[in-house]
Description:
This protein has two domains: 17-39 and 89-224, no CATH class; 43-88, no CATH class. Helix content is 36%, strand content 27%. The protein has helices at 3-12, 28-32, 49-65, 68-78, 97-103, 144-153, 158-168, 180-189; strands at residues 19-24, 40-46, 82-88, 91-94, 118-124, 129-133, 141-143, 177-179, 194-201, 210-216, 222-224.
Amino acid sequence: MSLKIIKTYLREGLEKSDIWYHGTPDVRELEKECGFSNRETSIKYIKDLDAYNAIQQNLKTSRENGDDDAYHKNLDMVSKTYGQFKMRKPIFITNDSSVARTYANAKRAFDYQDAVEKLLKVKVNTNKGVKIVASGDRFRFIDTNKVKRGFVSAGVSEDEFNTVLNQFNYYTNKKDGIKTDVIAAIGEWFGFDFIDVVGVLDSYEGGSIKSTVRMVFNPKDITII
């Protein structure tokens, strides 16, 4: 493999060595369970966008008309459009040990006085993934178009992506970025094993180091080495 190709792999977050890092503020539970374990979480979403949008329009109209009864009636209907999407909580790893090390801080642990912080080196065995080229964005808020390009390149139609994004991202008026938990939910919705966010700025203490952060949904895909 030529040096140029190797540099391309490194730049795009496709490291052939497949060595990744995870910084934990307290390694005791990981050691007790002999590795990463499955954790579930949930995120609120809109089950029926058409119904939700219709209610929002009715709320706007009744408010403009000063019709308090109609307004409160429609307001009560909003909650019926919500659902809870249950998903596997992703495990976050990075290709840069210095970034992972910032998360290996005992002060982040619940039992910080007795916590045993540790930097872990891991390998990953995954199949179906998404690559989002983040180009210097902060990890917790990624440009919407960059996220969309990643999912479309992975085989999701643009229309499907837009619909699911609106279902999960209904609560924010910011159209220029997507939070990490929403990106993870979209990845789970479409059945991906992992999501790579390439060239992202991610550090517990801030900073300016660009790295690839990988979200892995199945803990069995990660082996501590």
